[in-house]
Sequence to fold (191 residues):
Amino acid sequence: MEQDPQPKWEGKVSERLPKATADQIWPLLNDFFNLHKWFPSLATCYGIHGTNGEPGCIRHCEGSSIPSTDTNTDGHSQPVSWSSERLTVVDHVERSLSYEIVDSNIGFKSYVSTVKVVPQGDDGQDGCVIEWSFNVDPVAGLVLDELVRKYKVGLQQMAERLEDAVKGLRKVDFLFLFYMFAAALDYFYSL
Fold:
């Protein structure tokens, strides 16, 4: 008798960024080949096919948050986990992207994920929320609640990095404007 297949696992986490707008965060997350800049447990992420940010492009990611299913000769897990991920949909108006894992050593089968940046406040200037949802076939050796917790912790850390980056950009913009103002004054007084 055939067993009923297990239902897909579904998870969704979100994190509020009170000091960064959706317009500031979206370009950083839409940089599909450079997720490692923001996601702390990724050691590297780079493009292996296509044009960054365009549907069909593929990135290769390596990290440590999800255990590898590969084993070395002594039967222990390999320390580096990896996945190749294809960008399937980008919606710049809704500030969302979806991707799927096409190959990995972390046991994910039929994995699809969506990341969305949602503006907060009437004018979108009261920060934003990043929503990250996924569905995947059940993964041997993992529990859904633990997987969702890993996503939540990762998203919290990623949100901190993104806000710090935006704050750094504002500081650079301010310093640039200050320098330009000082240079203009210097020029004006030299006349």
About this structure: Confidence is low (pLDDT under 50) at residues 171-178. The domain at 9-190 is CATH 3.30.530.20 (Alpha-D-Glucose-1,6-Bisphosphate; Chain A, domain 4). The two ends are 93 Å apart (CA to CA).
